[in-house]
Amino acid sequence: MDRLRIAVLGAGSVGCYLGGHLAEHAEVTLIGRPAVLDTLAGGLTLSGGERPARTVPADRFAVATTPQAAAGADFVLVTVKTAATAAAARQLAELGSSAVVVSLQNGLYNTERLRAALPGRTVLAAMVPYNVLQSAPGTFHRGTAGAVAIEQHPAAAPLLRVMTAAGLSAQSEADIGATQRSKLMANLNNAVNALSDLPLREQLGQRAYRRCLALCQGEALTAFRAAGLPLSKVGPFPAAVTARVLLAPDAVFRRIAAANLRVDDRARSSMWEDLERGRPTEVDNLQGEVVALAAEFGLKAPVNARLAALVHEAERGPRRRWSGPELLAELTAARG
Known about the structure:
- By secondary structure, the protein is of the alpha/beta class.
- It contains 15 helices and twelve strands.
- β7 (100-103), α4 (110-117) and β8 (123-127) form a beta-alpha-beta unit.
């Protein structure tokens, strides 16, 4: 049987991590910025995920800087930032390819945007639950746990098979929208983590930061309920239970986390990495989505709005490192 041909469009940290695994079992082309791809000349190193670090030799995958390299692919995995989705959709439309397109992006509406630009094409929603950072040039470290979820569809079967063969936990989801919304709930911590300038484990270990996240998630839960949009279980607890766990004293939270959460001591959010590298963040597609949805139903989400504003301030610089009590006071004041 011919090997599956997979193009990763927007090969940054997540794209390179997935592509590196898949390269052992499929023909993989990583399409991205020269700044990332130039670091792969000596191979691609994968670490974390409770597996030993290993290097995938450079001759196991192809690299390209233009979307034309996706021509002839069976699957195109879209891992660009949300702000680049429209451009990626136009580029794929110009190719005239019949490849199945899979959106592995943050936010709630990227799949709809891709479908609108690619009529007649199979475009599937998917969700990557874990955190991946480029910890060193050419090295991509996974710091948290979970399984990739792909929208239930017959066309997804070959990709699910090759991901499983590559050791990437992956599963089919009947209600991928609920899964994406639950991922957004978790991703609301990205901004808190970025402003803290701490590793995830250290940040989540401090109750003041967790209270900031709980405030964000409370507004999101209210907005989703007003819209009649259900959530699925992403992680060890349902969304409503997670909010209570976040408010537990530090000693209690640490015991719960030790038993239920797998976050290694090197993990940081992708938003932290964006600020660190001077790149625009996706805060408008996380906190901003909560604010917009709340407004549709006559509600307000002042905590998420203020957190988004603080991240935008950090994008412009100079960057402030917020302590937990400082950030909590700022967000509490925003509630009025």
